């Protein structure tokens, strides 16, 4: 089983970061990064692990457990492209029983908010399955791009057939030229306290 040090190095190289750049992102010295990668420092505190995963743009599970056959959630950030755009993130297929009202065929991606990011309808520890689409299929939650960044909105058609976009707890607003549909939320799981 691969240890944490080599995984840190592998993920750093995949992210095309040198030790100094990663150190700046995490808030440690580049010597500390060297010690982590070599295994000279074997225990890393939780806060530093979370910062390291965010700096490497990977889920904490990939950092701690290494490559897994389970799909890892993509990190959703307000600024930037949809998490599956421009990368090599593979999609998953959800069984039809999990999305009976959606009538969705095709791949979707597991998504969770990146550390420090907030989204309407999607809490900090929630998980969403989003199917990429630029076409309105049916009323529901969509990931959209606005002039201000990415957002989750309830999208519906009004009586005239025009699309409306509703933030959580807000009033629907009409379509604007800088809005673009990126994906439809086909399933949503909320973390509940134990």
TrEMBL record:
The record's annotation in InterPro entries points to:
Cro/C1-type_HTH, Lambda_DNA-bd_dom_sf
Recorded hits in SMART domains, A to Z, give:
HTH_XRE
Q: Which Pfam families match?
A: HTH_3
Which residue numbers delimit the HTH cro/C1-type domain?
8-63
Indicate what this protein is called per its UniProt record: Helix-turn-helix domain-containing protein
Organism of origin is Halomonas koreensis
Source organism phylogeny: Bacteria, Pseudomonadati, Pseudomonadota, Gammaproteobacteria, Oceanospirillales
């Amino acid at each position: 089983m691969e240890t944490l040090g080599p995984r840190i190095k592998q993920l750093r190289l995949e992210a095309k970061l040198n030790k100094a750049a990663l150190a700046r992102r995490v808030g440690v010295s580049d010597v500390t990064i060297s010690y982590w990668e070599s295994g000279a420092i074997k225990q890393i505190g939780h806060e530093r692990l979370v910062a390291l995963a965010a700096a490497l743009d990977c889920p904490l599970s990939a950092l701690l457990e290494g490559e897994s056959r389970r799909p890892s959630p993509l990190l959703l950030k307000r600024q930037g492209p949809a998490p599956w755009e421009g990368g090599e993130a593979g999609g998953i297929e959800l069984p039809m029983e999990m999305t009976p009202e959606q009538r969705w065929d095709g791949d979707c991606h597991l998504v969770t908010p990146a550390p420090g990011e907030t989204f309407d309808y999607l809490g900090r520890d929630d998980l969403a399955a989003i199917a990429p689409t630029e076409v309105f299929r049916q009323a529901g939650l969509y990931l959209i791009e606005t002039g201000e960044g990415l957002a989750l909105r309830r999208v519906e058609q009004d009586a005239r057939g025009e699309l409306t976009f509703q933030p959580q707890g807000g009033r629907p607003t009409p379509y604007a030229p800088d809005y673009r549909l990126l994906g439809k939320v086909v399933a949503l799981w909320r973390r509940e306290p134990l």
